[in-house]
Amino acid sequence: MTRFFDEHIKRSVQYLGGAWSFSKDYNNEGESGKWYLGLAESEKVTVPSVWNTEKDMLTYEGVAWYEKRFHSEGGCIRLFLGAVMTQAKVWLDGEYLGDHYGGFTQFDFIVKDVSKGMHTLTVRVDNGFDAHSIPQKQVDWYHYGGITRDVTVERLSGICALYNRIEYTLSDDLKTADCTAVVELFNAENESASTFLKITLGETEVYAGSVSLEAGERRELRLPVVINDVKLWSPEEPNLYDIRIETDTDDLYDRTGFRKIEVKDGKVMLNGEAMYVQGVNRHEEHPDFGMAFPQKLMKKDIDIALDMGCNTIRGSHYPNAPEFLDMLDERGMAFWSEIPIWGVGFSAETLGDETVLARGLEMHREMVRYYYNHPSIIIWGQHNEIPSGSQQAYEMSKLYYSFLKENGGNRIVTYACARPFEDICFDFCDLICINAYYGWYSGNISDWNKFAERFRARRKELGMEHKPVIMSEFGAAALYGHHTFDNIPWTEEYQAELITHCLKLFREDDMFVGALIWQFCNIRTCKEMGLNRARGFNNKGLLDEYRRPKAAYFAAKKIFSE
Fold first, then answer.
1. What is the DSSP secondary structure assignment for residue 302, as one 8-state letter?
2. I need a labelling partner for 269 at 20 to 30 A (CA). Which of 48, 219, 457, 524 fits?
3. Please, is 69 exposed, middle or buried when counting C-beta atoms within 10 Å of its C-beta (0-12, 13-18, 19+)?
4. Angle formed by the axes of helices 322-331 and 354-371, to 10°?
5. Could you give the angle at which helices 354-371 and 391-407 cross, rounded to 10 degrees?
6. pLDDT the model gives residue 502
7. How far apart are CA 246 and CA 244, in angstroms?
8. How far apart are CA 480 and CA 541, in angstroms?
């Protein structure tokens, strides 16, 4: 995986990016036809990528196959896939390894006793939808398909470190971190083995000593350590601590940071200081690359957001690439990470479907597992705009909230609500987050003032005055370069006026502790969203899809920078 730092020095890592063989499976006959034994007809494509940016494939939705030949020195190998949109089945030399559901988190397979020589990796990819899909077919982003993040082959030998996370609690004065280093070890040999294991966190030694494992054994170690004189992570000083895990034959490097985020006295508190959450919702998408998003553009997006005065980005509506989080960790930008349950496409009945519930819970498990060490993530999001007045939504929220509070580390847990006057799930959030679009989908810009008054009364009625509010989405669409003397919808002037009105209103009302504009830039969207998506894009971006600023960008920057 291409992180923003080297994860391994001792471990041999081979990147399989570049040219792959590719074949469309229009009739979904490849599995019965044993295409995993070899693609009879194929073309060359680049991985990582999405197939919808290939000529004549913009609207293709269904199954396609990828094949890559590679050389291995043999032994025990780990096949790593950073993300596949949306469901993957994987074969090595015609032998089935397994599958994975969900397009935005990594997965891997460990294969032992691989022979030295050439091998074939085959991946069946399906970006189609059914009654149990997450997201559902009606979703306000594009139905991309493909292998969208890095694929690697790692050669494992001896006792290896497969995973780590640093759990911690800060003292009241925030100067001491009482930590548990969680490390997963694996013996890649066919016989018992011993190694000298050394683990350090920053300059502090966590463990140094001998460890023995049986052949093929996996073992999780939980090792206590105390870090004194903690250098806190914050937007002003994004201090990071290196995590180094070394055995005789293997290594794993990572980073973390220490900070305390909480909701207290009606405010969001970061390291004991009130934080006003201001920023944007951002999709990891570009019309030329889809969701196979280049690192250079990640950096550019962060540069633009910081220039605007943002301190937070909401990753709408799925886990973003790990290297993007690495950049945020380094730059001191906070992040809201969530899973792709985008509610407009979900009926109450679908929310109660056992497969949907289980898939969503597994997506939360993966998000927490692989993103736990990122200090930039201050908010876990359970779902977005589901029918939260239903009993099914209540049960889903209760399940996911309990999991994230128990397993998610020091984070705020919430969800984005589009039905604030019907919602029955506010018990299952640490702060209330509302999506509303007065002045665009309904009403006028002046209706925002009435909304604030109405929801203050609603919050009091529910006995939840202690829960502050973030406006997690608001905005209006504008076509880049569309100007008139009349301040009418779809013009840059109208979008800038609405954004200015809202930002000022939220800042002047102590019920609100933050505002996240919808959205950072225009994104391509699916045909199921109907005719109010001019050009096939959601045009509510402060920038267009090529990152050219609209008037609303400068309006937001003016207020954010005050």
1. H
2. 457
3. exposed
4. 50
5. 20
6. 98
7. 7
8. 9
Q: What is the pLDDT of residue 532?
A: 62
Q: How far apart are CA 64 and CA 464, in angstroms?
A: 49
| Contact indicator for 13, 156 with CB cutoff of 8 Å | no
Question: 456: which 2 tokens?
Answer: 């203050």
What are the φ/ψ torsions at residue 198 (nearest 5 degrees)? -130, 130
3-state secondary structure of 454: helix
Angle in degrees, CA 554, 560, 562, rounded to 5: 105
CA 473 distance to own-chain centroid: 17
d(CA 438, CA 414): 22
Tell me the per-residue pLDDT of 80-128, one tens digit each, with 9 for 90 and over: 999 999 999 999 999 999 999 999 999 999 999 999 999 999 999 999 9
Q: Which residues contact 534 (CB under 8 A, 6 or more apart)?
A: 477, 479, 490
Bridge partners of residue 80, in order along the sequence: 108, 152
pLDDT at position 531: 52
Question: At which residue do the structure tokens 């996240």 appear?
Answer: 516
Region 326-334 average pLDDT: 98
Q: Which of helix, strand or coil describes residue 71?
A: strand
- pLDDT at residue 88, rounded to an integer: 98
**CA–CA dist 21, 152 (Å, integer):** 16
Paired tokens of 527: 């045909």
d(C-alpha 279, C-alpha 285), whole Å:
18
pTM for the full predicted model: 0.96
Which position has the token pair 């002047």?
508
CA–CA separation, 474 and 470 (whole Å): 11
DSSP summary character for residue 65: E
DSSP per position, 513-550 = EEEEES-SB-EE--GGG-TTSGGGEE---SB-TT--B-
End-to-end distance of the chain based on CA atoms, in angstroms?
Answer: 39
What gap in Å lies between CA 218 and CA 224, rounded to an integer? Answer: 20
Tokens of 132: 């149990």
Residue 457: its H or E element = helix 447-461
- Can you say whether residue 481 is alpha, beta or left, with left for phi > 0 and alpha for psi between -120 and 50 degrees? left
Is the CB of residue 343 less than 8 Å from the CB of residue 384? yes
pLDDT tens-digit map of 433-461: 999 999 999 999 999 999 999 999 999 99
Copy the structure tokens of residue 21.
């063989």
**Class of residue 234 by CB neighbours under 10 A (exposed 0-12, middle 13-18, buried 19+):** middle
- Note whether 523 and 283 are within 8 A (CB): yes
Residue 284 phi/psi, 5-degree rounding, is -90, 75
Per the structure block, which two tokens stand in for 387? 């029918």
Are the beta carbons of 288 and 523 closer than 8 angstroms? Answer: no
Strands (E), 421-463: 432-435
